[in-house]
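Researcher: Quick one. two chains, 414 residues in total.
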Amino acid sequence: MALTLPPGLTPPEVAFLCEMELVTVIPRQRLEGLQLLGGPTVPLIPPHRTPLPLWLALLLKRQNRANIFPPPWLSPSSLDAILQLETSSPEFSDTPPLPRSTTPVSPPFLPSATADAPPDALPYHWLELSTLLLEAASDDIPSADHVRRLLRDLREVRMAKLRAGVEVLEGGREVKMNGVGAMEVSEGRAFIGGVVDGLRKLGAGREISRREREGEEGGLGTGGEGDNEDDMEY
Amino acid sequence: MSYYSISAILTSAQKVPCTFDLPIPNRGFLDDNPGGDIAAHTPLPLPLYLAELLAVQQLDNRPLLTLDLPSSLQPRVLNALKADAKSVDLRGQEVYFFEGAARVLELLEEEEVGDGLCEAFKKRAAEIADHARNARGGTSSGEGGEFLRGLDEWERGLFRAAHDSSKAVRMWMGEVKGAK
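Model:
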């Protein structure tokens, strides 16, 4: 039989990828640099803030060897501002701007959760990262309960937007999904994919007749475009 | 539409009203008249797999039979869907309502029907998403039970997908809490 896992990543897999994100730690003990497959880590010298991958930071935190410095967006004031933005606009709030340099371009290599991350934007892994941090390092996060409540509200608002997007789907129209986080994609994929697939099947007959009409009217001009649409269906 | 898809097979067993335009000899058994002929212009419900093939056949440049909209796609149902998509019991009409409709619409050029169905599908999908996130337990419990019982097979699939993925996220969050 077919593979029983749904297409796409499951929540634990998304969280696993999220653990590659860099966070800032304030070490309590010295630790030499570790030679890891992903490159050496910075040696830890107690009062200096150091960027470390989340998984290592969580490990050190559990062993009480370091404190985690929460990313600036994980504070009540910035979450409040983002929530205001989310409730007042039908679009998702912006993702953090890309750095000027050319090399790091995708989420695990962007400094979106370190101490110098922009405070006014939710990064790609916001939901997983904040859940993990709130569980393992809630004593490092100022007013953790308030943050937790705001995050829950944010999640509700954004899921409602994803759901509302389904209603405006139509052949030519699109739903703008910029800024949707990894966990939200994982949660919405099966449903949204199913709706789009259903609409495509229901509209298949009309699509063919429309294309035939266009072919008759436009002749060669629209031929190339029609071919492209054909490719898209597979 | 996969060869091995159970839902496609069951959909193709749905009956569609057809009318033979020509007299067909020796096929009376389709019309409860074994051994006899089918007279021209006899209305006859045929399963979709048969009607699909016969509708595209031609004999001397004349179509063999004309398809009609099945009872589940009559204006009565479509108007009800237009008025309030969420209150129609589609399962009562046809277990594979949307899949059957998609198959029929491939054969018939009924733009208005197609538009109406797409619109209804979207509205109901949004409602399904709401129920899937909030539902506790099976499809029978809660105030949305009436609506959820009226879902056709496609929509049940959607409900299950939406419910499973939000459950997976909740489970992951529970695991994070448990690991501490």
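The CA atoms of residues 59 and 177 of chain A lie 34 Å apart.
Researcher: Thanks, that's what I needed.
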